[in-house]
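Re: weekly structure request thread

Next one in the queue (243 aa):
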Amino acid sequence: MSEAGEAAQAADERRQRAVEVQSGAARAAVLGVNDGLVTNTAMILGVVGATDATGIVQLAGLASLVAGACSMGAGEYVSMRAQVELLERLLDEERRAMAEDPARERVVIRGALERGGFAPALAERMTQDLARDPERALGVYSRAVLGVNPDELGSPWTSAFSSVVSFAAGTMVPLLPWYFAPRPAALVTSLALAGLAALGIGGTLGHLSNGRVVSSALRQLVVVALASAVTFLVGKILGVAAS
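Done, posted below.
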């Protein structure tokens, strides 16, 4: 592949990642898996510290999965719905402003283009050209002033579904062994799977963000370990007090 082709492919990949992030689906998926893993790992260890009954661990883990997934999905839908409605309102207001006072809005767009690095003369010519197409001008305004693509505001339902599925997947990692193995083996396997999943999530986040895969993976492992240790100690204390 030529250098131009490689550059174009890289640009397309970056754009696709940006679209996924703006749509909310990628953000919801990452947060969902991470929250599910941390929540259920910590919760399971808290119950383990409080009781020796495997059935209670299974029930508590399943209840955490269902309640957490519903909460995450509802919260993500409400959040994304509010975000989309806010952006749509801002765009509608700007559309009306362009119709009522186009000269003032041209000044606003020209200023945004100049702040973005365009020479004043070029920004003026671009603004005059955009004045002939209000919807195109609105798109430029949205990107330059609001920092969003009006055609890709995101889908609340997609974000909610992604959040539900990813949270459930995260919670299942430490929970599944408790349904297929006796207590000692289930505990060891649960902790091992949770640790591997934490390393995987952290490494993936590091690769996608700053390229620091190892440090990000270890940081995520420490977060899961600390949360689990705290809930285990709380469960142990409560279990002793109850007995």
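The chain has one domain: 27-242. The chain has a mean pLDDT of 81.
Next request, please.
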